[in-house]
Amino acid sequence: MTLTLELRTQPPARAAAGELIPERLQGLAAADVAALTLRCGRQIVAVGDLFEVSGSGDDQVTFAGDLRLVDGIGAGMTRGRVVVEGACGDYAGARMRGGELELRGDAGAWAGCEMSGGLLRISGHAGARLGGAYPGVRVGMTGGEIVVSGDAGEEAGAGMRRGLVAVGGRTGAGAGLRMLAGTMIALRAIGAEAGLGNKRGTLVSVAALDPLPGYAFAARYRPPALRVQLRRVRELGLTVPDELVNGAWARWSGDRTELGRGEILIFDEEVSG
Amino acid sequence: MTAYTLGATQVADTFAEAFPMRYARLVITAATDGWAHEAARSATGFATSVIGCKCEAAIERPLAEAETPDGRPGIAVLLFAMDREGVGKRVLDRVGQCVLTCPTTACFDGLAGAEKTVPLGKSLRYFGDGFQASKVIAGQRFWRIPVMEGEFLVTDLVGVGRGVGGGNLVVAASDEPAALAAAEAAARAMRGEGIALPFPGGIVRSGSKVGALTSRSMPASTNHQLAPTLRAQVPDTLVPEGVGAIFEIVIDGVSEEAVREAMRRGLHAAAATGATHVTAANFGGKLGEFHFPLSELRDPP
User: Is the link from the previous residue into A255 a cis peptide, with omega within 30 of 0?
Assistant: First the structure.
């Protein structure tokens, strides 16, 4: 059974929907959910004042409407499924530990930041710091998977330690900033300063890229792990042509301004072709 | 004693006796089908009998590109040992020496989700001398070990399941060509998902008995009762009249049902290919917990 929360009116200020996750709504009737409260700017408002609530929250929670002023949807969730029909605000899926969050529209900044498990799908574009770390925190994402069909903003995957971020559209500047490990895959153009301060992470760029001076060219080869990862990304819904899966990639090692055990893998169309 | 006949084949009123074993399934992939086979053949070499080789292993089946985790041609290999520790040691040895070393290969776990596991990449990674790196893909950890060719990708853990070892059929005919043809047909029919035939070509010509008549130190010796050349000099010979050659097919499987059905396929294939007699080896039913009476295999597969 699906619990549906349809936005009936725009909130007077940014609303925090972090409480509305499957594990907290399980077994509640629509009236119970409507009676819950959430923070909206400096006010506390009833869920029923903002949303038309229907169904019951056993399997899936669905949000509908223009939710760009609603932050933290699916934040901290550990299981179940949350679907957002339309654009949503910041911090969607932040610190999520399990379950699946599907955003069928654009996401604001900090989507999936510091997440440690589960799957975050974004059909539209994602804002800055996708899967990143909050200011002052060294470690960003520590597990799970983020798949974005559209573009991603600046500093996607910043500080990530484990997990996978895959972007089907363009990836903004500073991707993989200070990555500790994990994998960040950019399937189209990627912005400047990719992989700055990368320690052990893998940054994958299908588009040609001039790596930072802290990187050194190692070899062209067909990375077996990337083959499995690209097939996984395809399984998660992004278009990954066979020539990428089977193709050759140039491996650049770096960033030598840090540990230097990271890598940027750049698709080599010439060798692959 | 004959239980029933299948065409001209007499099927003995007896049973095969088998034992619980532990097993792992490895999925070995490579750039080509040929290299995947090279690695699988090497990894399953010298693994005919757990007594002499510490494990029993065989190619289970070839895998199409769509069936493997990396989309390349692959081979599923089954390896059996008496306990989980044994499986772990043998898997590590064989992947380390035969798969890691083979051009273009990668090695995956074919029993993902198994309750019990043994380390593979988790131990093998040290070959990377500190340059190894791990990746968690869809919740499963892999190790990337840098090698002269590029990288060897290997699963961190391998699942271990409860299997059955030592199912068997004994196929006899008037002479060696006829008996071999029947045994080959049986082995071909038996192979498939969940089945390993660990002997060369799946067929044993030197069936053994426990211990020896002439030595206390021998763990096993020739099954003199089933040696046709001794028929006239061994009072307790079991070689039927008119039989000139006998072959055994040993079957390990991932379950009792898998072994039973493989035996059924093998029995009927042997009967259809000229076997005069089919029987099975057992230890009087005292040693193995699994019994496969040939009388239950009368219906064709």
Answer: yes
pTM: 0.93
pLDDT, mean over chain A: 95
Residue A211 near residue A218, CB atoms below 8 Å: no
How many Å lie between the alpha carbon of A163 and the closest alpha carbon of chain B?
7
* Distance between CA atoms of residues A254 and A232, nearest Å: 25
- CA atoms lying within 13 Å on the CB side of residue A222: 19
CB pairs under 8 A between A and B: 46
Q: How many CB atoms lie within 10 A of CB B47?
A: 23
The interface predicted TM-score (ipTM) is 0.93
Closest to A126 in 3D by CA, of A170, A184, A180: A170
Q: Are B209 and B164 in contact (CB under 8 A)?
A: no
**CB of A187 closer than 8 Å to CB of A245:** no
Tokens standing for residue B223: 């099954």
Short-list B142, B64, B154, CA closest to B102: B154
Determine the average pLDDT of the residues in B55-84: 97
Identify which of B25, B87, B90, B31 has the alpha carbon closest to the alpha carbon of residue B61: B25
Provide φ and ψ at A60, rounded to 5°: -140, 145
How many whole angstroms separate alpha carbon A102 and alpha carbon A61?
Answer: 10
Q: Which residues contact B257 (CB under 8 A, 6 or more apart)?
A: none
Domain ranges (residues) in chain B: 2-18+163-297, 22-161
Q: Which residues contact B97 (CB under 8 A, 6 or more apart)?
A: B42
Say if the Cβ atoms of B150 and A219 lie within 8 Å: yes
Task: Answer whether B135 sits within 8 Å of A229, measured CB to CB.
Answer: yes
- H/E segment holding residue A45: strand A43-46
Judge contact between B264 and B279, C-beta under 8 A. no
β-pairing verdict for B151-155 and B245-253: unpaired
Sort strands B116-119 and B157-173 into parallel, antiparallel or unpaired.
antiparallel
DSSP state for residue B200 in the 8-state scheme: G
Is B197 within 8 Å of B65 (Cβ atoms)? Answer: no
Fold matches, B2-18+163-297 and B22-161: yes
B22-161 is classed CATH 3.30.70.520: yes
**pLDDT tens digits, residue range A16-42?**
999 899 999 988 999 999 999 999 999
CATH topology of domain B2-18+163-297: Alpha-Beta Plaits (3.30.70)
Closest Cα in chain B, distance from residue A50 (Å)? 37
The 8-class DSSP code of residue A171 comes to B
Distance CA A6, CA A119 (A): 23
How would you classify residue B228: left for phi > 0, otherwise alpha for psi between -120 and 50, otherwise beta?
alpha
The minimal CB distance from B70 to the residues A143, A145, A231 is found for: A231
- In B61-80, the residues whose Cβ lies within 8 Å of chain A are 69-72
Helix B256-272 to helix B176-190 angle (10° resolution) is: 140
List the beta bridge partners of residue B11.
B4, B278
**Tens digits of residue pLDDT in A83-137:** 999 999 999 999 999 999 999 999 999 999 999 999 999 999 999 999 999 888 9
